[in-house]
Amino acid sequence: MPTQETETQQADDQLITTDIQHAESTRREQPDQTVLEARDLDVFYGEDQALRSVDIEIPEHKVTAIIGPSGCGKSTFLRCINRMNDMIDVCRVQGELTFRSKNVYDEDVDPVALRRKIGQVFQKPNPFPKSIRDNVTYGLEVQGKSATDDDVERALRGAALWDEVKDQLDSSGLDLSGGQQQRLCIARAIAPDPEVILMDEPTSGLDPVAASKIEDLIDELVEDYTVVIVTHNMQQAARISDKTAVFLTGGNLVEFDDTASVFEDPEDDRVEDYITGKFG
Ligand SMILES: Nc1ncnc2c1ncn2[C@@H]1O[C@H](COP(=O)(O)OP(=O)(O)OP(=O)(O)O)[C@@H](O)[C@H]1O
Ligand SMILES: [Mg+2]
Q1: Distance from the Cα of residue 262 to its chain's centroid
Q2: 259 to each of 51, 239, 240, how far by Cα in Å?
Q3: Is the CB of 71 under 6 A from ligand 1?
Q4: 17, 107, 168, 238: which is deepest, by most CB within 10 A?
Q5: Strands 243-248 and 252-258: what pairing?
Q6: Which one GO biological process term can you cite for this protein (predicted)?
Q7: Is the CB of 16 under 6 A from ligand 1?
Q8: In a mutational test of the pocket of ligand 1, which residue from 42, 44, 45 has the highest number of ligand atoms less than 8 Å from its CB?
Q9: How far is the CA of 173 from the centre of ligand 2 (A)?
Q10: Global pTM value
């Protein structure tokens, strides 16, 4: 009989059919490989349309920032990517969204396997009321895998938290500071070794020092993962991202380009108005 683990692995196998600021980065010099692609993507909540005919190609091992005014569909877009919108009864998705050329909405895609490949970090740090160790191992155990001490250390190191918590792995994750809690959530997200990490305003509730640590961490994460981050903070988008996508009210993606081009020479006047703070 197949174990849960082999079933998950099989589902994974089915699934995969087929800047300015990062001065030192060598990843720039490599040709862009698309990891996620939306084609004519529409999203509705009941009668209301939240995204309109979105076309985008998100490159591997880059940071893609999603910016735009409140209600323009940024979180909706992020949730489409790993099918978190499945949890919202009234939500309907049309068009195509592919992860490594496979439409994530195909019937044979297992959303749990998909979320193992495409992890998520939310705006408000949401560690479980469990030990630091259990928060990290949860990411693996939910996928039917057992977690070793090495796995825990690797994930916490990957989230730049190990040195701060290595002597208190059995204390509650809730006793950590807000910034540490968010890095614990990042450790939980990277424990199953995903390919993509989605982040929805991950620093908006943090003080500037804690936020800056997460920004530095994102710069490291992108060596191993592809990062898609929603942010309301223009400076943050300009600092940390390689590509920037600008959504405007109505759910239209109006500009998507290298971050330097979007911020220094946007094509669309409305984007210029938005990034210079004239609205939004
Ligand atoms: N669960 C839901 N049910 C119904 N409508 C929703 C739901 N979630 C979002 N919407 C609607 O979809 C549109 C896009 O919302 P979304 O949360 O994606 O925007 P956003 O760009 O992330 O905004 P913010 O910057 O405020 O987080 C809004 O009009 C919102 O009211
Ligand atoms: Mg949002």
Answers
A1: 20
A2: 22, 9, 9
A3: yes
A4: 238
A5: antiparallel
A6: phosphate ion transmembrane transport
A7: no
A8: 45
A9: 25
A10: 0.89
